[in-house]
Specification:
Distance between the termini: 58 Å
Radius of gyration: 21 Å
Number of helices: 10
Number of domains: 1
Shape: globular
Number of strands: 7
Largest sheet: 7 strands, parallel
CATH topology: Rossmann fold
Order of helices and strands: HEHEHEHEHEHEHEHHH
CATH architecture: 3-Layer(aba) Sandwich
Strand order of the largest sheet: 3-2-1-4-5-6-7
Low-confidence stretches: 312-325
Helix content: 40-55%
CATH class: Alpha Beta
Length: 325
Amino acid sequence: MCVKSFIAACVTFIKDVFTLYKVGIYEWFWAFAYLFVNRNSKVICNENILITGTGSGIGKDLAIKLAAMGNTIICIDINDEANKQTVREIVQSGGRAHGYCCNVADHENVVKLHEQTLADVGKVSYVFNVAGVVSGKLFRDLTPADIKLTMDVNVLAVFWVTQTFLEDMRELGYGHVTTISSVAGLFGSIKLVDYSCSKFAVMGLVEALRFEIMAENLPIEFTMVNPYFIKTGMFEGVVSKWPYFMPMLETGWVGDKIIEAVEQNRVIVVMPRIFYYLMLTKAFCPDRLSYHINKFSGTFDVMQYFTGRPDSKEADSNTEKSKDS
């Protein structure tokens, strides 16, 4: 009986290996082909789109651009006045937008928000998790309040918003969830211990959830965006060691790239592209060498003159700022 079981296990293993081999050839072919041909793009129009962190930065930029494409935008930010300004700009330009003041790090608030948006707008088919915070402190200087705020806004808010509004997509039969992470979710760095931790967590969250949805054969897509530092004020004072190869990114350019990635159903986007090669290098180099790679790239010193937004102290205690990198 043991011999038969062993043989059966070997046969099953060999069959699975050949299946994986065939799938691998197919996927590698298209991965290579996409280097030379454009991916098929879907049209994002007449959709109800929820975006967090629309009071400023990338969130605001995405809201304005997606509204101009003919979508109804649900603008979410804890900074009510800034959020209302975004809604006014969209409406004045002929777009459709609804603004809601909500602390998305609070589960009950997100549930109430869902009830309100269902009544006011209807089911949501696209979600952009953009809101986030950064402390920019050394690990030894982080307070429990700093760490809790970072994890609440950068991780738990993504849980609550995605879990709640994913039910709309299940009922609609399609949807797309986009989450703005950071290169700090790929590489650890000095003065970004809590921030990197939250972004590594979000990477795992989205990857595992994407596999769950794929196993259910649901036509819901996921895109994870990992940008370098963006010129929005959130990382005020940050200076790149190699500005030609690792430039500070412009908000408008990043917004365009995010929308393009969603249209093409891309799973992971890293900006700028040099970080793809650094990811590959990190995967194959000895652990201790990764320290020197980070040192060479300047990521250890990039936060040396970090100041953040002028209202960062108030933001840490009262507001949830727009997530940019």
